[in-house]
Amino acid sequence: MKFNTTLIHGGYSEDEVTGAVSTPIYRASTFHQHKLGSKVKWEYSRMGNPTRASLEKLIAQLEHSIAGFAFSSGLAAIATVFALY
User: Fold this and answer.
1) pTM for this prediction
2) Does the pLDDT of residue 14 top 60, yes or no?
3) Structural domain of 60
4) Mean pLDDT lowest for which of 6-10, 21-25, 26-30?
5) Sign of the C-alpha dihedral computed for residues 46, 72, 61 and 29 taken in this order
């Protein structure tokens, strides 16, 4: 049996640090900053983190879209949609 679907294999390939082939759950709220004011990929989890980025990438692939978005609640998603108009 071989599962070759976007849902299982899309959005993620391999964790750069650990080599894990499934998306790790990063529970960190803040990330290390080498220098104050320097540009870093991950700064604070409310602005983004590797786990959410992987989910959003998979959502975009599943929907054949250029971007996917994940929210912490349904109300946050609804408020964002209404703010677009």
Assistant:
1) 0.70
2) yes
3) 3-83
4) 6-10
5) positive
Q: What are the backbone dihedrals phi and psi of residue 17, each rounded to the nearest 5 degrees, phi first? A: -85, -50
Contact 69, 52 (CB under 8 A): no
Number of domains, the chain? 1
**Of 64, 58, 53, 70, the residue nearest 7 (C-alpha):** 58
CA–CA distances in Å: residue 33 to residues 6, 29, 40, 51, 77:
34, 13, 7, 19, 29
Burial of 50 (0-12, 13-18, 19+ CB in 10 A): buried
- Per DSSP (E only), the strands in the chain are none
pLDDT of residue 78: 95
